[in-house]
Write a structure and sequence with these properties.
6-stranded mixed sheet, alpha/beta, 14% strand, 230 residues, globular
């Protein structure tokens, strides 16, 4: 079962594609509204192993209009099985997330139901498309994944933003918080970024783990965290 275009529009109270994509982008930075949207999705679509954004995106995307199409679910499942293993995945050209969703699903199915913890898995994705990036972020967050999404050019490692997606409650059926990593030299070194191509976005929903090096922003980050905890 897929989610229809009209169902998506009804969830966000919009009536056309442009308004829908604008709202999808806004929800990246609106935790309450985002989680209400996720709950509406889960009320009609229970199979989280499916990339339910893909068909909508392909129907409207300028990228798809140029003949570039996104991965079918069946191929995603096969790729996940071939990759195998556990602990997550690293994917360049992630699109709306089909392949990495299938790897996440495979990881979950291979884990004991009562012992599955999101903190045992880390997923990293890189996507250049401005159209796809918000859908990819939501694909991680609605599934309670932990990982990093890099919005930029894989060849030049010229990057607009880096999104740190964190299930801080470590809840197997919970949603993840969305954070934007500051544009620091430490972050560049840590992620292999050569340059930032967009102004930094300040958005923090959960505390970063100690192993993410953000020394240059430490004082600023602490003040942001303090605000989040008030």
């Amino acid at each position: 079962m897929t989610i229809t275009e009209q169902q998506f529009y009804d969830m966000l109270n919009v009536d056309e594609h442009m308004n829908f994509t604008n709202r999808i982008q806004e929800l990246v930075f609106d935790k309450k509204g985002r989680e209400e949207f996720y709950s509406k999705i889960l009320n009609i679509h229970h199979d989280m192993g499916i990339d339910f954004f893909r068909d909508y995106f392909m129907a409207h995307s300028a990228v798809s209009a140029k003949g570039q199409h996104y991965t079918p679910d069946e191929l995603g499942k096969l790729t996940a099985l071939l990759v195998g293993g556990s602990g997550g995945a690293d994917l360049t050209g992630a699109g709306t997330g089909t392949l990495i969703i299938q790897k996440w699903q495979n990881d979950r199915m291979n884990a004991d139901f009562f012992n599955y913890l999101p903190s045992n898995y880390w997923y990293q994705a890189l996507e250049l498309s401005d159209e796809a990036i918000s859908f990819l972020i939501h694909a991680f967050a609605i599934r309670g994944m932990n990982g990093v999404i890099i919005h930029g050019d894989a060849l030049e490692m010229a990057v607009k933003q880096v999104y740190f997606i964190q299930n801080s409650a470590n809840n197997p059926i919970g949603f993840s918080e969305i954070n934007v990593i500051p544009h620091s030299k430490d972050a560049m070194d840590f992620l292999g970024i050569h340059e930032w191509t967009e102004q930094a976005i300040e958005h923090i929903e959960s505390k970063f783990p100690d192993w993410i090096p953000l020394i240059e922003e430490k004082k600023e980050q602490m003040s942001l965290f303090d605000e989040c905890e008030k």
